[in-house]
């Protein structure tokens, strides 16, 4: 019975985490076109750059300690398993960005600049896992609302007359440069489910494979102290 927690952590590390991140990788590129057909979009190169910057934040924020995940103290198969899990996390991060990034046009690069600017500034900020997860939630939540609620509402072909007028004014002021291709509303639901799975996966990631990977373990001593200091 004493080995049950260790076995659960091992099962989570070997099975649950890769499954979650691979599901995010698949769903992050899924789009439902206006004619209800499914389209899969591979991650653009810019999202791989974002995933690399985010991976750096994971290490700086101590969400992942590479020395504990990979090293000579583990066997070859264990190192391979850990490396594949971290690789799945990398591509899941890229596809999470892909799910909230407009597919083309000026909006694509505006959103990309927004992400890159935020991630680059965070490279020089003090971080702990709790603050990192909170920052990611705000970042992805803002992009989700902008793309799948505001922009999708403006570009929907069957919207109300007020929405069509607003879309016409929006496109006229931008000379058509900010137009977004119409997609079915199901795309927004897929993106929401993708981001939810991604955040759950991050909450389950332990800094070291032998440590419990729940949300409570992410609040380290430093983050607790910062919370206490902020209340004083």
Helix content: 55-70%
Please trace the helix and strand order, writing H or E for each element.
HEEHHHHHHHHH
Overall shape: it is globular
List low-pLDDT spans: 172-177, 214-232
Residue fraction in strands? under 5%
Tell me about the largest β-sheet: 2 strands, antiparallel
> What's the arrangement of strands in the largest beta sheet?
1-2
Number of strands: 2
Q: What is the total domain count?
A: 1
Taking all residues together, what is the mean pLDDT?
76
Structural class of the helix and strand makeup?
mainly alpha
Total helical elements: 10
The first-to-last residue Cα distance is 43 Å
Radius of gyration: 20 Å
Features:
232 residues, mainly alpha, two-stranded antiparallel ribbon, 3% strand
Describe the structure.
- The protein is globular.
- It has one domain.
- Strands 1-2 form a two-stranded antiparallel ribbon.
- It has ten helices and two strands.
- A hairpin with a 5-residue loop joins strand 1 and strand 2 (38-40).
- The model is unreliable at 172-177 and 214-232 (pLDDT under 50).
- It has helices at 4-28, 45-60, 66-69, 76-100, 105-122, 129-155, 161-173, 186-204, 215-218, 221-231, and strands at residues 30-32, 38-40.
- The protein is mostly helical and 232 residues long.
Topology of helices and strands:
Layout: H1 4-28, E1 30-32, E2 38-40, H2 45-60, H3 66-69, H4 76-100, H5 105-122, H6 129-155, H7 161-173, H8 186-204, H9 215-218, H10 221-231
Antiparallel strand pairs: 1-2
Helix pairs in contact: 1-4, 1-8, 2-4, 2-5, 4-6, 4-8, 6-8
